[in-house]
Known about the structure:
The chain is α+β, with helices and mostly antiparallel strands. It is 15% helix and 36% strand. The chain is built from 1 helix and 8 strands, in the order E-E-E-E-E-E-E-E-H.
Amino acid sequence: MYDIKEDTSGNLWLATYVCGVFRYDVSKKEWKNYVHNEKDEKSLSNNKVLSVFEDSRRNVWLTTQGRGICLFHPTAPRALQPIHLKQQRHRILFQILRFHRSLR
């Protein structure tokens, strides 16, 4: 496990290196596992999830190893939106997110 995050709704996020990301929905009292599916372009971009970050709009951002980031919209029917960045940009963005988290 690489990261654990509780969002503002109290949901628990577990970022893993092999199994994608797990989200525990406190209102439904159930776990959901988001994983990469090559046949679904709206799935997680990579199962190696390194960090979880929640922004001020309650969107959850997932950084992955080498395959960009994913944006999770809590109210959207298709919650995950992969955002593919060039490798160099991905590294820079990951460092910014990591730095921001360290300020908390």
